[in-house]
Amino acid sequence: EARIRAEKEEMLRMRKEIEQFRNEFTNQIVEIKDEEMKNLKTLSTTYAAISPEAAVAIFNEMDDDFVVKLLSLMPTDAVGPIFQLMANSKDNSGPLSERAARFSEMLRLTVKEGK
Asked: Is the pTM of this model over 0.85?
């Protein structure tokens, strides 16, 4: 009886841990909804056309999720120079390379609705 109770408690503990991992993973996924896709495409085209310095300066004022949505729609030949500049730059909070790494991880987890 004690062994069964201990196993049940262990299963409940593991279940809570799995739910916590699932919630953490779900919070990391960036979703692009169909309704916002047209505007995001327009903005991403605009940011791809400006200099990496200007894009980084503007991105520093934006929310990470929004920047990742824009980056996910930009061509890689525009994103590369932006990441390169970020890798070699700092702002008040420290090196931008950390933010670029976070963006890379978020891009890996980006989900476009309807795809």
From this structure: no
